[in-house]
Specification:
- The chain contains seven helices and ten strands.
- With about 230 residues, the protein is an alpha/beta fold.
- The chain has three domains: about 55 residues, no CATH class; about 45 residues, no CATH class; about 100 residues, Zincin-like.
- The strands form three sheets. A four-stranded mixed beta sheet has the order 4-5-7-6. Strands 1-3-2 form a three-stranded mixed beta sheet.
- Helix 4 packs across helix 5.
- The chain starts with 8 loop residues before the first strand and ends in a 9-residue tail after the last helix.
- The structure holds zinc ion.
- Zinc ion binds next to loops.
C-alpha cells in the first residue's frame, strides 16, 4: 500500500469555470480545476487553506481497497466479512452463498468480471434493505414510496420529497447492522426531513444501537473497493 506521506503530483487544469475544485485522480495525482487566469499565488493560497482537507482526501484514496478479481481463492468483502471465492463448475445457478465464509461461483460466470459481483451485491442489498424497510414501516406506520437500489458511490442512502428511498448496492459490502442503520436513517427522514436533534432522537427510538452501524461506515466506508467497470 502506498503511504499517504509520500509526495504527490499536482496538476492544474484551467477552464471556463467560476470556482476552484480539488480532487485526487489517483493516489499520486491531485487535480486542481481552476478558472482561466487564476494566479499561481491564488492556487498556492488555496493549497494552504485546504491543507487539512487535502491530507484527509489523500489518506482516503490511499486506503481504498483495490477491485477484487473473480478468481479462485480471492477474498471478497460481503456483509462486512471477507469471503473466499470458490469456483465450482457443478453450480447450476450463478452463485451460491450457502457455505459460510465462501462465495461459490460458476467459472463461466466469474470470467464476466465485476458486474457479476455487482449483481450479487445488488440482490443482497435489495433483499436486506426491503426487509428492514418493511420492518420499520410496519412498526412506525411510515409511508414508504418506491425503494430503489442505485450505484451511488458516496451516498449510502437518500430519501426524496415523495418518500421514495434510494440505497446503494455498495451496502452489501458492509455489515448487516450498517445496512439496518442506513435504512433506519432514511426511514427517520420520512418523519424529520433534516438532521435536527429531534431526528437523531427519533432514530435512536427506532434503532437504539444505530451508533454501531454508523461508526463502521465512518471508519471503513471510504475503504470499500469502487468496482466501477
Ligand atoms: Zn440523513
Amino acid at each position: 500500500m502506498a503511504s499517504s506521506k509520500q509526495p504527490f503530483e499536482i496538476r492544474v487544469i484551467f477552464s471556463k469555470r467560476k470556482t476552484i475544485e480539488l480532487r485526487f485522480a489517483d493516489t499520486n495525482t491531485l487535480i486542481i480545476k481552476a478558472p482561466k487566469h487564476t494566479s499561481k499565488e491564488r492556487i498556492a493560497e488555496v493549497l494552504q487553506l485546504k491543507k487539512a482537507w487535502i491530507e484527509k482526501a489523500r489518506r482516503h484514496v490511499v486506503e481504498r481497497l483495490p477491485n477484487p478479481q473473480l478468481k479462485e481463492g480471492e477474498n471478497i468483502l460481503f456483509l462486512g466479512k471477507w469471503h473466499q471465492i470458490k469456483l465450482d463448475k457443478t453450480l447450476n445457478k450463478g452463485f451460491d452463498l450457502s457455505q459460510p465464509g465462501f462465495i461459490r461461483l460458476n467459472p463461466t460466470l466469474a470470467q464476466k468480471g465485476n458486474h457479476v459481483l455487482i449483481s450479487v451485491y445488488r440482490q443482497t442489498s435489495r433483499q436486506l434493505v426491503e426487509e428492514y424497510c418493511h420492518h420499520y414501516a410496519r412498526k412506525w406506520q411510515l409511508d414508504i414510496g418506491t425503494i430503489r437500489i442505485t450505484s451511488a458511490k458516496t451516498r449510502w442512502g437518500s430519501c426524496s420529497q415523495k418518500n421514495n428511498l434510494n440505497f446503494s448496492w455498495r451496502l452489501a459490502m458492509t455489515p448487516k447492522i450498517t445496512i439496518e442503520y442506513v435504512v433506519a436513517h432514511e426511514c427517520a427522514h420520512l418523519v424529520h426531513r433534516n438532521h435536527s436533534k429531534a431526528f437523531w432522537q427519533f432514530l435512536k427510538q427506532m434503532m437504539p444501537h444505530y451508533e454501531e452501524g454508523r461508526q463502521w461506515l465512518r471508519k471503513n466506508g471510504h475503504k470499500l473497493p469502487l468496482l466501477d467497470d
